[in-house]
Structure formats: structure tokens, C-alpha cells
Amino acid sequence: MTSIDLNADLGEGFGRWRLTDDERLLSVVTSANVACGFHAGDPATMRRVCELAAERGVRIGAQVSYRDLAGFGRRAMDVPPAELTAEVAYQIGALEVFARAAGTRVSYVKPHGALYNRVVHDEEQAGAVVDGVRLADPSLPVLGLPGSRLLEYAGKAGLPAVTEAFADRAYTEQGTLVPRGQDGAVVTDPEAVVERSVGLARDGAVTSHSGTRVDVRARSLCVHGDTPGAVELARLVRQRLRESGVRVEAFA
Fold first, then answer.
1. What percent of the chain stands above pLDDT 70?
2. How far is the C-alpha of 202 from the C-alpha of 1, rounded, in Å?
3. Residues 6+ positions from 141 with CB-CB distance below 8 Å
4. Where do the structural domains in the chain lie, given as residue ranges?
5. Pick the CATH number of 2-248 from 3.40.50.300, 3.90.400.10, 3.60.21.10, 3.20.20.370
6. Could you give the 3-state DSSP secondary structure of residue 142?
7. pTM score, two decimals?
């Protein structure tokens, strides 16, 4: 039977401000990408999400980003490689404290926002992220876009490279994500998101923004937690995957 991991970005709040419905999403997903304080997330939020994830048996991943709270990590930044390496390791280490306190551990790393998109093509920044992961824990898997420099460098460094697809993001003909500033970059129709999820999991393909078929072989599927109706949509995706003969489980 085909299987796929279902992940979501969680802990994306700060202080009194909350963005994601962490508790309810943790009843649906199998992996949680937890904000580590650089684009969102404060110590109390990180601790709470780790405890909730541990209670539900959900895998915890460190969602590392550029230091950009005001821009939610979605603004382009130029960070020197040595500095980025240290900041990635710092974020992983901070989350690991709370994961261990909850009786579990950080199980993987996934870049966020502008950093995620940058390391698809930028060799220097991709290498810096991989170096940061190795500095924190040389056994940690790295989630990224298929064909990205990030996963290429992770593999060369001996880190498990895990391919990821997005249920609610539009794709270019090259298999990259349509930039959020462009019309149609985020797929908002629930039925379209569900159909794309099944196609990605079962057929390893998605229809691009221009209408062409794009092969996207992924071991993990992301449903964003900051979109309206995120919990209900995630539940619908998981239900339809099961009905289509796809087993939803954390990646090995």
C-alpha cells in the first residue's frame, strides 16, 4: 500500500498572538514542523507544542528560518554562510530542549519561507543549512523540495534527504513553487486541494500553474496550518487519502 507522511507548520505564534490551531491540527498530522523563534514561536509556545505532539505521538521537526519575525520569515535576506549555519544549529538546539523535556526528540529539520525557497537553487545557502543541521545532530533527516540543492547537499553530507510536496501551493512547470506574490500561488478551493493531495500521494504528479503535468515524488505532504479552515481541510485530506488506498504515517 502507498503511504505518505502528513505534515503541517505549527507553533506559529508569539506572545499573545496565535496563528495556528496547534491542538486540533496535532490530532490530524503525523509530523509537526515547529517554529523555532526566528520567524515565529516563543519558548512557551515551543514547549507547549512539543508536549502536545509527544502526547499524540506526532513527530517533531525543527522549522528553521531566517531571523525575520516582522516578515514571518518570508522576506528575502542575505545571511553570511557561517552565520546561517550557527543560526540553524541554534534553532534546532532550542527546540530539542523542549522536545526532550516532553519525552521525545527533534526528528527532522525543514526550512521555512524565504529560506526554503532560497535553498532550492542557492548552493551556498543550502550548504550552510546542511552544515547547521550537522552541527546540531548529524543524523537528522532534512525535508525539502525534490531536486533542490538542499536535498542534494544533505545527501552528500550523509543526512537522510526527505522529499516533500505541497497540497495547497501552485507549482511551476519546473516543479518549484509559484512565488506567493503571484496570483494563484495558494490553492484555496478545498476540493482542489484534496484532489491534488491524492494525485501527489498516489500518482507522484501534480498539474502545474500552466496546466502541464509535473512529476513530484514525495514522501511527505504539507498542509499549511495558517490558512482559513486549515483543520477541517487537513482532516478532509487525510480522510480522502485513506479512502484512496493511501496509508498516512510518518516517514521512516
1. 100
2. 10
3. 107, 108, 109, 159, 160, 161, 162, 251
4. 2-248
5. 3.20.20.370
6. strand
7. 0.95
